[in-house]
Amino acid sequence: VQLQASGGGLVQAGGSLRLSCTASGPGSNRVAMGWFRQPPGKEREFVASITRGGGNTDYADSVKGRFTISRDNDKKTAYLQMNSLNLGDTAVYYCGATPAILTVLPREFNYWGKGTKVTVSS
Question: Residues 86-111: what's their mean pLDDT?
Answer without folding.
Answer: 95
